[in-house]
Specification:
The protein is 50% helix and 0% strand. By secondary structure, the chain is an all-alpha fold.
Length: 101
């Protein structure tokens, strides 16, 4: 799930989704521990990440620090520049000679 989707859920929906994800994570971990083959091993990571995101959103809302995700504005297209003229090499500075006093 994406953060936008999690933010759009109500408190009850987030709680039920969290319970479902925890049950699925327990089932997948049980299969791994039993030595069975898992279809998608990266699913464990995805489940853990989604659970953490839901818990984070819940905690932010409880503390009142939740900031809504802003839509990204489209940036103006970059101007393409034709071949730039080559710069002339800089002249090297001559070393100054100091006269000892």
């Amino acid at each position: 799930m994406r953060i936008k989707e999690i933010n759009a859920l109500s408190v009850e929906d987030r709680a039920s989704k969290l319970a479902d994800l925890r049950i699925e994570l327990a089932r997948v971990r049980t299969m791994v521990n039993a030595g069975g083959a898992v279809e998608n091993p990266s699913r464990i990571r995805d489940l853990r990440r989604t659970i953490a995101q839901i818990l984070t959103v819940d905690n932010e809302k409880k503390l009142g620090i939740h900031q809504p995700v802003e839509e990204k504005e489209e940036k103006p297209a970059k101007k393409t520049v034709a071949a730039k003229p080559a710069k002339a090499p800089k002249a090297k500075k001559e070393a100054k000679e100091t006269v000892p006093k």
